[in-house]
Amino acid sequence: GREESRLDARTTASKAMYEQAHHHLSGGVASSYQLRDPWPIYLEGGSGSRVWDVDGTEYYDFHNGFGSMVQGHAHPLIGKAIAERFPKGTHFAAPTEDAIVVGDELARRWGLPKWRYTNSGSEATMDAIRIARAYTGRDTVMKIFGSYHGHHDTVMVSIGFQDYDDIGPADNLTSIPYGAGVPQATVDMTVAVPFNDAAAMERRIQRLQTENRLPACVIMEAAMMNLGVVLPEPGYLEAVREITARYGIVLIFDEVKTGLTIAAGGARERFDVLPDMVTMSKALGAGLPMGAIGGTEEVMSVVEDHSVYQVGTYNGNPLCVAAARANLLDVLTPDAYAHLDHLNARIIEGCDDVIRRYNLPGYTVGIGSKGCVTFSEYKVVDYLTYRQNQREDLADLAWLFNMNRGVYMTPGREEEWTLSIIHDDAAIDAYVECFDEMAHELTK
Ligand code: PLP
């Protein structure tokens, strides 16, 4: 209560802006993920590791645009690339050289030879699924229960942002639409299986095979990034790779969040498992809207032979690919990833130390530039273990403590922190000190 009133009192300019905004913006925001009760906090700007709101409060940014801004805000090299491109024109819907350079670099980092671009993560997963369906001639899509892959109908199913009373047995989980407006026929075509359970995945695939509806693809995050962070258990990804190959199912790693934030070559590099396709967005465009799909020669042949139309007016937009080129070649260097690893080790160690000293229920989990404190006495391995054990009261309180002490977080408690390459030890210490203060208040 006290932390809530403190935040309300500190964000009166946001409140005024909200009153103005909600006349013509539904909920006062541009995307439902920006909603917040009693009002959203409106930002004015950002630079490096910092953002500031319309009340003039400055924060260390651990939200980083849901992990898009791993290069930090207003990075001079990204600014230079955009400034040099602008006077030469920003949009033709014709190919430009930067698109080639970006494709070469993505192919090098991921070990997948063929690439296409989109404008968002949702478009990347939508097109990747269509390509997999065309390549296999199958309709069913398999995903992980609880995972988010964007807002098109096929993947707005069985997502972990809400509590479900009963999701059925592990071998036969129910497909549940996320929000209204998703046709039941589409929901029925998407089948979810639990994370970290390759045996359950295989049993579900076998059942689908007897029903004559083998999946076209398994789309998954190699490490789940929307229940905090849930890492794959040893051997799990290798087993998924083996099973999908055996049934001729296209394995898609959705690297919209993990690509460029957990290693130079994303989850594919970190876990050393090669999928048939990857989808990317977020950090790729360095703050400009851009996504990408990568795939093997075989799978992507359905694009090359024109049987699938992978299209978009703004695909490969010159401004976006200029930013992505500078991002990949000049900003997200090997040193940058070493720095992120250093910072993440420091924040993980700091949070673990607080948990130990105050005997809090929970543990810290992280990888690359991402991590979180999972407030659970038991290890979370999938959606069910997350929902059953998560101390949501503590997660909510941690959010308020951070926001009131200059540490800016994503609005949802299911999100993780994302660090940028501009963050330094002082930013990390600010986060850990907030957590320490909360633990002290709770246990005194
Ligand atoms: N895939 C994953 C793993 C995501 O986290 C997201 C967005 O949060 C998406 C896809 C969708 O990306 P976008 O919001 O750019 O459409």
UniProtKB/TrEMBL annotation:
Family, similarity comment: Belongs to the class-III pyridoxal-phosphate-dependent aminotransferase family.
PANTHER family: GLUTAMATE-1-SEMIALDEHYDE 2,1-AMINOMUTASE, GLUTAMATE-1-SEMIALDEHYDE 2,1-AMINOMUTASE 1, CHLOROPLASTIC-RELATED
EC number: 5.4.3.8
Protein's recorded name: Glutamate-1-semialdehyde aminotransferase
Cofactor needs: pyridoxal 5'-phosphate
Pfam families: Aminotran_3 (PF00202)
Top-level division of the source organism's lineage: Bacteria
CDD domains associated with the record: OAT_like
